[in-house]
Design brief:
eight-stranded mixed sheet, Rossmann fold, 2 domains, alpha/beta
Length: 352
Amino acid sequence: MDGLTHPRDLEAWHRWQRAQQPLARRVRGTLDVLREIARPDGRAGEVVVTRGGPRCRVLVLVEARTPSQAAALLAPLLHLPLDDVVVVSTSPVRDLLPAWLWQESRSLAHEVVPTLAREGAVVLSTGPYLRLGRLARGAVEAPERFVSVQHGLLTPHAPPLAEGTTLLAWSDADADFWRSGRTDVTSHVVGSQLLWDAGAPPSAAVDPGAAPVFLGQLHGVELPPGVLARAAEGFCRDHGARYRPHPAETDRRSRATHARWETEGIVVDRSATLLRELGAPVVGVFSTGLLEAAAAGLPAWVHCPDAPPWLEAFWERYRLAPWGGAPTPSPERTGSEPSLQVARVVRGMMRA
């Protein structure tokens, strides 16, 4: 069946994820767990931004300050009644929203998250697989109040959903894929705010003479690093493409690969140029940026020699076009803004 490798077992998924990580990162992860055990009262450092009264009726959990999580979790707040809304993030996010939305910002300790989750009518998250989501999910008594919002493309190695969660998916195909045959998950199709924003007019200007840009994913664990590196290196050599590292490509192996490529004549583009401003064709293996580029009007393709069957199925689900043919079509635009659709679901749960 086309679905997750671990459709229910979150601990099995964590074991798989740890096994893919470099030794140094695994050691750091173990030390972080030991520190949490040693300090059960929690470690200060999360940030809370809030507006309204003393109660928390909507708790929003931002595990990372990324464009994808901001689009999935923060954009809906523009369409919600903001009394008693609390946002908890692992880093400051207040500047990502209009100043009028928030009245205060302060540090928060771990132990406050379960308290907020217990009293909240709705918990808006990316799932239970990271720290804030895990803390909140363990405290929510009605599992359907724990809402999981899709914020990126789904491979078979995506983490499983929490039991009984309410899923807000980009498409029917993604909802079916992430549920993987489960009947305990209620899903709603809301679309992708990330792709909606990428497709906002005007369309990106394309320079017909520009060399392609290959979107890096050397940090990914879904495929062996050698497969990802060979796909990128071979394409860049054969087509004179620039290589654009993913922001997470900061580990020693990735940096060494970048340096080797540069000495061999491959251009590594470390600029902070927005994707839609590249003005060039975009190529990658399974990056969400490919659909963002297609939405913006840039020609986009996928490329990976000897792709495994799951990757070919992934390309088909998202209509990602292999290099050599017509480019990837722009994602279909939903009837209304996805963040508004997320807000409608949340408002309905607040009234229930």
